[in-house]
Design goal:
172 residues, alpha/beta, seven-stranded mixed beta sheet, 4 helices, 30% strand, globular
């Protein structure tokens, strides 16, 4: 029962964006000015201040202020499930999804652009001084997470359980 409810919640969370644009184009800068991407997109879902990117490329380049919410791929889910066991995995996943949902609500209330990504393995942040910070998501301890980014400072992976405090410390 728990497993089916969790899977349903994951599916609803991932398709929560209202508008879906099917396209395959070379993308240099989206209409919201959030990111620069020279890849072919499978699709992009837009709803309010949320952008969901599913690209064929493994690198997401971010140049503007936003929150990046990354989600695990099927491969990551299977690997973690094997590492911790099915029951522990679903207990942990339930907690992560609760805190992701709460974080998403808070970030939306702050009117910051939110970029959801699932298939990207690398986040490449371009700072205002043109320096680059690269994060390899495959090396992250957690398979779900949030990064805040303001080009004036290095990106910060935040603790979802303290979203309000983390946000206020980072975004000044």
């Amino acid at each position: 029962m728990k497993k089916s409810a969790l899977i349903t919640f994951i599916m609803v969370f991932q398709i929560s964006c209202n508008q879906k644009v099917e396209q395959s184009v070379t993308y240099t800068n989206n209409q919201n000015g959030i990111l620069k991407k020279n890849v072919e997109l499978q699709n992009e879902e837009i709803s309010g201040n949320i952008i969901s990117i599913k690209s064929k490329n493994d690198t997401l380049v971010i140049e503007n202020r936003c929150a990046i919410i990354y989600e695990p791929t099927e491969k990551n889910i299977k690997k973690r499930n094997k590492e911790v066991g099915e029951e522990n995995f679903y207990i942990g996943a339930d907690d992560y999804l609760f805190y992701l949902n709460e974080s998403n609500k808070y970030l939306e209330s702050q009117k910051i652009k939110i970029v959801l990504t699932k298939n990207n393995k690398v986040l490449k942040f371009i700072l205002a001084d043109k320096s680059v910070t690269t994060i390899k998501l495959d090396l992250e301890k957690e398979i779900w997470g949030i990064y805040l980014f303001d080009p004036k400072q290095k990106p910060k992976r935040i603790d979802m359980t303290s979203i309000e405090e983390e946000y206020k410390k980072y975004i000044k």
